[in-house]
Structures are given as structure tokens and as C-alpha cells.
UniProtKB/TrEMBL annotation:
An example Gene Ontology biological process: regulation of DNA-templated transcription
Organism from which the protein derives: Thauera terpenica 58Eu
Organism taxonomic ancestry: Bacteria, Pseudomonadati, Pseudomonadota, Betaproteobacteria, Rhodocyclales
Coiled coil: none
Pfam families cross-referenced by the UniProt entry: RHH_8 (PF17723)
Protein name listed in UniProt: CopG family transcripitonal regulator
Classification via SUPFAM superfamilies: Ribbon-helix-helix
InterPro entries: Arc_rbn_hlx_hlx, RHH_8, Ribbon_hlx_hlx
Length: 138
């Protein structure tokens, strides 16, 4: 099986998450914001998350290498999948970050070319493609 290089999609790569915090934690965050340590709550939370990711960076690197994940952004266009289909191959998509499948990819083409999908982060694809791959998405 040959390896295909795909071009990453550019644009907004952030995802919104929701967290629940206790009132004491939230009060402490607000105090640090008020005292000028952070510009707002989001700034503190992002900084805390980045610090934790930095602390565990080596584990992430080792796991990405061991499990052969693509790290970052991975975009699959209709042309990319048609080339995979023409070669008689199937993709095992493994991404840590963002995997996106172009809007013009049909559910049939996706099923014909994508054997499995493991995304730690976000998968952007049409609802029809996600439904077609539901049994292959882990």
C-alpha cells in the first residue's frame, strides 16, 4: 500500500467546548482575571490546558509515533479519495487534531475508500458521510 500525502485545510481550527466548574474555582479564576494575571477566563483556561499538554508532551509524541497518528490537520478531498479508489486501496484515517472530508465527497465514495476513522480531536464531514461511516468511526 502506498502512502498518500494530503494538503491540510486552512482556516478556523478551533472547537468550542463547555466545562462545568465549581463556584469556588470560578471565583478564583475571576480573582486572577481581576488582578490582571489573565485578560479573561478563557485566557486562563487556555493557558492551564497548554501547560498540562506541555507537561505531557513526551507521552503525546510517543503515542502519536506508536499509533501512527497524523498530528495536526488532515484534509481529504474528493480527488484524494478518488485516487485511493483508483489504486484499489482503503484508508485507515488516524488523526490527532482535525480530520476533514470535503463536502463534495459522497457517502458512497467515503465507504468505498475509508476503512476506519480514529480522530482524537475533531472530524469535519457532512452528516451523510458521517452516517455512512458510522460503523467505521471509533
Amino acid at each position: 500500500m502506498s502512502v498518500h500525502q494530503f494538503k491540510p485545510k486552512t482556516g478556523d481550527t478551533s472547537e468550542k467546548i463547555t466545562i462545568n466548574l465549581g463556584v469556588i474555582d470560578l471565583g478564583q479564576i475571576d480573582l486572577l482575571v481581576q488582578e490582571g494575571f489573565y485578560s479573561n477566563r478563557t485566557d486562563l483556561i487556555r493557558t492551564a490546558i497548554r501547560n498540562q499538554l506541555s507537561t505531557h508532551a513526551e507521552v503525546v509524541r510517543e503515542t502519536v509515533a506508536r499509533k501512527t497518528f497524523v498530528l495536526g490537520l488532515q484534509h481529504y478531498s474528493r480527488g484524494d479519495l478518488e485516487a485511493v479508489q483508483a489504486a484499489g486501496e482503503m484508508l485507515q484515517i488516524q488523526v490527532l487534531g482535525l480530520a476533514s472530508i470535503a463536502d463534495d465527497v459522497s457517502p458512497e465514495l467515503a465507504r468505498a475508500t475509508i476503512d476506519s476513522v480514529v480522530v482524537l480531536g475533531a472530524l469535519h464531514a457532512s452528516a451523510a458521510v458521517k452516517a455512512a461511516l458510522a460503523d467505521r468511526i471509533q
